Structure formats: structure tokens, C-alpha cells
Amino acid sequence: MRSWEGPIETGPVPEDGADFDAIVVGGGPGGSAAAGYLAMKGQRVLLIEKGVWPRDKVCGDAVGGKSLSHVAALGVKPRLEATPHFRVTGIVFSSPKGNSVRVPLPEEDVERLEAGYALPRAQFDHLMFERSTELVLEAGGAVVQGADVRAVLFDDGQGGEDPGAGSGEARTVRAVEVRLGGRQGETYTWHSREVVGAAGYRCPVATALVEETHGEVMVDRMHYCAGYREYWQNVEGCGPDVGDIEIHFVDSIIPGYFWLFPVSEGVVNVGIGMVIGLMDKQKKKLKAMQADVIANHPLFKERFANATMIEGSAKGWQLPFGSPRKKESRQPRRAAGSGIRLVGDAASLVDPFSGEGVGNALVTGEMAARHIVEGLTPEAYMEEMWAMLGPELTNSYRMQKLSRRAWLLNWFVGKASRKPALQEMMTEMIASKEAQENLHSPLFMARTLLF
Fold first, then answer.
1. Does 52 share its domain with 145?
2. Contact partners, residue 376, CB within 8 Å, separation at least 6
3. Based on the domain organization, do 344 and 394 belong to the same domain?
4. Rounded to whole angstroms, how far apart are CA atoms 53 and 146?
């Protein structure tokens, strides 16, 4: 058994009624980052995870450059590099017509091992949670696995639906009610005035804040993606430990895309994603679409001729996009309340074009921890979050909408394949915040694309 395939020892369960400086619900990358950063600042933290390690998390498995500063700051990067992984040096895009372009990641980042990695989330999450557990326990906190948060409790005595839901009245969080050991398990109540929600797209803390307290829409199917993933071995053209990841806009799955992300040791994450609202209209099933692409598409059927799918690896999930909603006063939707801060998927922060969510989870995990330590307001958290991530997410949403037009994809990828300056621009857009701002300039884009 390899280290990330084994259990993680988290110590004794805290006493019922125990108090903490902060409670973090969810032990994925965002929750582990928030708990780790809080502990590094001397906070007594309770980190709660519904699953029990080892556990899987369905994802594309890429860990991009945005993530790596936090992976390093939390002390995880050396551990990651000591385990099998795939080092990403570029991204290949293809259009419905079969045109393709390779976008290399910046050479200096590749040389410093700061460009990107791909490795199974079961492995990455294990490394993150294990390190966070060490930091939390060293600071006098506690970590609990197999814990199902049943209710978020507020000062008004309510847990669950608020009789005044939708009124926007201030409700200050005071505790979480948790059940251990399944349906017949024991119930505990743990107290804190600061709770971080980091438990994914249906996080109970997010539900309590967004739906139950404020009566707002949490799931908008035009801003959610359905994803489907399988692991395959021996896919032709995929390097064993270094090279490119691939994103393919295939005619049969527009609007959506098909990906090939090698993750190490000859294993490739093969998946497909599409906006749920658009998938509803077309009455499509991702599993069937992926099977058809692998078996019949001229670009892929030979590459999969001698490949085999790893049994039990087929899984689907949902991704809450960070695209701006016209009907929401806060973008992409409410992410904080009195004593509550949401991070990552719980705050609906997945990139609408690439589907990447780990980076924004780590960024907001650090941000939530810092705001708690500094005693900043929920409004300040939402303002900083959107100021930092909003331009990028808005641009990605524009690109997602453009990618629904096959003719435009064919034109753009075809032009990029022939124009080095456009390839260089795409590299900079991936790596540089300053370069991403050029997307706001119609004149810059016109000059780049047309001349």
C-alpha cells in the first residue's frame, strides 16, 4: 500500500459542546488550506470531513500554477514531488474540424517546477489533508473524519430552515451539529463564531447560508457543469510522467469538451463535461457520449485501440461555475454571512471555461483564514474575493459562451495553429494576470486575432 492509499490518523473526537476559534467543514483542498492557514496563525481549529481516508474525489486532476504557491506555503509541495505525478509542460487544444494548437506553459515556470502537475485527487487530497491535520493538531485543534454535518446553528436558536428566510436579517453562526458513525451514530454539537464552508457543491454550510437564511437560489443549472471521468491505461500519445494535457472540442459534444489528462505511471484521466442546462435541452448522457468518442472518433479511436479502462473508475459529479449571474446582486452568488465564509466549490468558484477549481479553492481558503484572523466583515470577504477572481471568471464565462459555436472554434484554433504570436498570447493568458486583463480590450483582441 502506498502512503496516500492508507488511513490518516486524526486523533480523538472532541467532547460534545467543545468550543473552537474556527470550524472548517470539508477536508478537500479548500478546507485543508483554510484549516492549515488558521492553525499556522495560532487558531484552535476543528476540521470536519464527511469521508474517511482513503477516499476519492472526482475531478480532472490538474493542479495549476495558481495552486502551487499555496501548496508550497502549506508544506505540501515536497511531499507531492516525492510521490508519482505528471508534470504539465503545455496544453493541447483541438477544434471540431480537427485543427490543433499546443500552448506551452512558460519555460521559466516549467524549469522552476511551478507550471503545473496532474495527479489523482485521491492522492492530492490525501497529501493536503494529512498536512493540514498535522498543523491543526500541533496548534491544539481537532480533526474528525466520517462526520456528517446535520445542521448549522445560529444565535436565533434556529438550525435548518429559518422562519424569516429571505428577509436578509442578520443571523450569527454559533455551532454545528454533527453525526458520527452513520444513521445510527452519535450526535455532537461543536461551537464557534467562525465557520468555513468547504464541502463542495452541496456544502451544508452553503445551503444554510444561501438557501435557508436568505432564500436565494444556490443551484442554477445554466451555471453548473456535469462532469464524467474514467481512468485509462496505455492511451497512445500520452507521456508517462511529463508532457501535455489535452482539451478537445469535439463536434458531437459541443457545447462541451473532451479531455485527456495524464496523471502518472501510464494512467490517463479521460473525461467529458457540459453545462447541465444545455445538456438538459439536448437530452444527452455524458457516459454514452464519451464511449462514442473513444470508439468512433477518427482522432481518438486508434489512440484507444490498445487501451483499457481501470475497473471502478467511472464516476460523475457536478461543478458549480463562478460565472456571473444577472439576477444576483453578489457574484457569482452569496459567499459569506455573519460568521460564515464559503470557499472553493461551496462558493461556486469553478472556472467556467477550463473547469478547474482547485486553484480558486486554495486561494479562497487562504483568504477566508486571513479574514477570520483579522476580524474582517463578510462583505469585505466577498468584495476581495470577487475583485481578485471576478475578472478572470468573467472572461472565462465569455470564452465558454464563444466555445458553444463550432465555426468560431474552428476559426480560432486554425488561426492559432498558424500564428505564433497568438500562441504566445494564449500562454500569457494562462500564466499572467496582467495579460488576462487584455481580454477587456476589444482593440487588443481585434489586432491579435485579425492581423
1. yes
2. none
3. yes
4. 9
147 domain residue, yes or no: yes
pLDDT of 159 reads 55
Residue 109: exposed, middle, or buried by beta-carbon count in 10 A (0-12, 13-18, 19+)? middle
Read off the C-alpha cell for 17: 459542546
CB atoms within 10 A of CB 92: 16
Is 173 among the domain residues?
yes
Q: Is the pTM of this model over 0.85?
A: yes
Distance CA 335, CA 26 (A): 15
Average pLDDT in the 211-218 region? Answer: 92
User: Length of the chain, please?
Assistant: 451
Task: Judge contact between 95 and 412, C-beta under 8 A.
Answer: yes
- Span 27-47, pLDDT tens digits: 999 999 999 999 999 999 999
- The H or E element containing residue 261 is strand 257-264
CB atoms within 10 A of CB 446: 10
Classify residue 316 by burial, with Cβ atoms within 10 Å: 0-12, 13-18, 19+.
middle
Same domain, 389 and 451: no
Q: Domain holding 208: CATH number?
A: 3.50.50.60
Place of cell 472553493: 344
Same domain, 356 and 441: no
- pLDDT tens for each residue of 227-237: 999 999 999 99
Structural domain boundaries enclosing 447: 419-451
